[in-house]
Amino acid sequence: MQRVFITGSDGMLGSDIVRELRKKKEYQLVCSTIADMDITDLRAVMNALARSRPDVLIHTAGYTGVDLAQREQELCFAINAEGTKNLAFFCRELDIQMIYISTDYVFDGKKKKPYVETDPPHPINTYGTSKLKGEEHVQTLLTNYKIIRTSWLIGLHGLHGKNFVETILSTASRKSRLSVVNDQIGKPTFTFHLAQQIELMLSVNASGIFHITNDGICSWYEFSRRIIDLSQLRNVTIKPITSKEFRSLAKRPANSTLENARLQELKIPLLPHWEEGLKEYLRRRKLKAASSVSEGS
Ligand SMILES: NC(=O)c1ccc[n+]([C@@H]2O[C@H](COP(=O)([O-])OP(=O)(O)OC[C@H]3O[C@@H](n4cnc5c(N)ncnc54)[C@H](OP(=O)(O)O)[C@@H]3O)[C@@H](O)[C@H]2O)c1
Question: What is the pTM of this model?
Answer without folding.
Answer: 0.96
